[in-house]
C-alpha cells in the first residue's frame, strides 16, 4: 500500500519551501511544487523559488516548466502531478506537495468541474468591454449575475472575472450553477494528509510580508521584472504578469505609477492575497493546522509518523 501524499499548504511567506525541503530530507521524499507562478522560467526572486543548490539537494518537480508568456491550467497541473507522483513512488520516495495555489490542490485531490474550454472570441469580447468600462464594472456585472462567485473573486482579479463571465456567456448559467450541476470529474482518489502552516501573530506576519517584499527588491526583483517584459515578451494579458509584485512593478515600467506607489501597491496586494488564502484555508475541512513557528517541521513529522505507523 502506498503512503499518503504529504501536502504542505499555507499562505504566502510562511516558510513552506524551507520546511518542505527539511521534511523531504528526513522522510526520503521529493517535492512537487504546487505554485502557479513557480512554473514559469525567469520568475525566480518574486516567487521565492528554491535556488539551484536547494534543488540539487532535494529533487523538485513542476518548477520552470513553462515560459512566462504561456498559459497553464489546473487541469494540466493535475495531469502533470499525477504522472510525477507515480514516478516518485516508483523510486520508493515520498511525494511531498508544497505550495499555496489551492486551486491546484483541489483539482488534484477532489477533481475539476466539467466546464467549457476557453473561447478566444468570447474572451476578446470581454476584454474589449473591460477596456471601455473597467474591470471593476465587470465585477459588478458578475455580482448581479452570481453573487456567490463575485464574493470569492477579488475586484482586481481580472483572470477570474474573465473566466466567470466567459462561462456565463457560453452557457447562460452562472459559474455557481455550473459547479452545482456538473459535479466533479473522477479523481485518482489519493489518500492525503494536508498540513496548513498558520500565522499565529497576524501583526508580526503582516510585517514579515512587507520585509520579505523589500528583501526581494534588494535581491534584484526590479531587474527580473524588466527582463521579463523587455526580453521575454511578457505583457499584461499573460497570466504570469498578474502575479503579486510582478503586476505592480510591471505597471510601473509601463508608466502607470511611480516606483514608490508601485511598491506600496505590491505590499498591499501581498497582504490581501495572504488574507484570501487564509479565508480559503478556513473553509477547507480536514486540514491539520500547524502554528508558524520554529517547531513546525517537527510537529508535522511527529503527526505524520504517528498516522502511518
Keywords:
alpha/beta; Rossmann fold; Histone, subunit A; 6-stranded parallel β-sheet; 14 helices; 6 strands; 9% strand; globular
Shape field: globular
| CATH classification, class level of the largest domain | Alpha Beta
Number of strands: 6
Rg computed from alpha carbons, rounded to a whole number of angstroms:
20 Å
Distance between the termini: 13 Å
Count of helical regions: 14
Q: Please state the second-level CATH architecture of the largest domain.
A: 3-Layer(aba) Sandwich
Strand content bin: 5-15%
* The CATH superfamily title of the largest domain: P-loop containing nucleotide triphosphate hydrolases
Q: Do you know the CATH topology of the largest domain?
A: Rossmann fold
In percent, how helical is the residue content? 40-55%
Largest beta sheet: strand ordering: 3-2-4-1-5-6
What is the H/E order?
EHEHEHEHHHHHHEHHHHEH
Nearest-integer average pLDDT: 92
Count of folded domains: 2
Largest sheet, in brief, is: 6 strands, parallel
Helix vs. strand class: alpha/beta
Poorly predicted sequence stretches spanning 5 or more consecutive residues? none
Q: How would you explain this protein's 3D organization?
A:
The protein has 309 residues and is of the alpha/beta class. 55% of the residues lie in helices and 9% in strands. The chain contains 14 helices and six strands. It has helices at 16-27, 52-57, 74-90, 102-110, 120-133, 135-145, 147-152, 158-171, 175-182, 202-218, 221-230, 246-253, 259-282, 296-308, and strands at residues 5-9, 29-33, 60-61, 94-98, 192-198, 288-291. A six-stranded parallel beta sheet has the order 3-2-4-1-5-6, sandwiched between helices. Helix 1 packs across helix 14 (296-308), helix 6 (135-145) crosses helix 8 (158-171) and helix 11 (221-230) packs across helix 12. The chain is globular, with a radius of gyration of 20 Å. The two termini are 13 Å apart.
Amino acid at each position: 500500500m502506498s503512503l499518503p501524499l504529504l501536502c504542505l499548504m499555507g499562505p504566502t511567506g510562511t516558510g513552506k519551501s524551507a520546511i518542505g525541503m527539511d521534511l523531504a530530507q528526513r522522510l526520503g521524499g521529493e517535492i512537487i511544487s504546487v505554485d502557479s507562478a513557480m512554473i514559469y522560467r525567469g520568475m525566480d526572486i518574486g516567487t521565492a523559488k528554491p535556488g539551484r543548490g536547494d534543488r540539487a539537494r532535494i529533487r523538485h518537480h513542476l518548477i520552470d516548466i513553462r515560459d512566462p508568456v504561456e498559459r497553464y491550467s489546473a487541469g494540466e497541473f493535475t495531469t502533470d502531478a499525477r504522472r510525477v507522483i507515480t514516478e516518485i513512488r516508483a523510486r520508493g520516495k515520498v511525494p511531498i506537495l508544497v505550495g499555496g495555489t489551492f486551486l491546484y490542490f483541489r483539482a488534484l485531490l477532489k477533481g475539476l468541474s466539467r466546464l467549457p474550454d476557453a473561447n478566444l472570441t468570447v474572451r476578446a469580447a470581454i476584454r474589449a468591454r473591460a477596456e471601455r468600462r473597467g474591470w471593476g464594472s465587470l465585477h459588478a456585472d458578475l455580482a448581479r449575475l452570481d453573487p456567490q462567485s463575485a464574493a470569492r473573486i477579488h475586484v482586481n482579479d481580472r483572470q477570474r472575472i474573465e473566466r466567470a463571465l466567459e462561462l456565463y456567456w457560453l452557457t447562460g448559467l452562472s459559474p455557481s450553477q455550473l459547479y452545482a450541476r456538473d459535479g466533479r470529474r473522477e479523481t485518482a482518489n489519493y489518500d492525503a494528509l494536508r498540513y496548513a502552516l498558520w500565522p499565529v501573530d497576524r501583526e508580526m506576519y503582516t510585517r514579515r510580508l512587507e520585509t520579505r517584499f523589500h528583501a526581494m527588491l534588494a535581491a534584484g526583483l526590479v531587474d527580473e521584472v524588466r527582463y521579463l517584459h523587455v526580453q521575454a515578451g511578457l505583457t499584461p494579458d499573460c497570466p504570469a504578469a498578474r502575479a503579486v509584485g510582478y503586476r505592480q512593478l510591471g505597471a510601473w515600467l509601463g508608466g502607470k505609477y511611480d516606483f514608490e506607489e508601485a511598491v506600496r501597491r505590491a505590499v498591499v496586494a501581498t497582504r490581501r492575497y495572504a488574507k484570501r488564502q487564509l479565508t480559503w484555508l478556513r473553509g477547507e475541512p480536514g486540514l491539520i493546522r500547524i502554528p508558524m513557528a520554529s517547531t513546525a517541521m517537527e510537529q508535522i513529522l511527529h503527526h505524520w509518523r504517528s498516522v502511518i505507523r
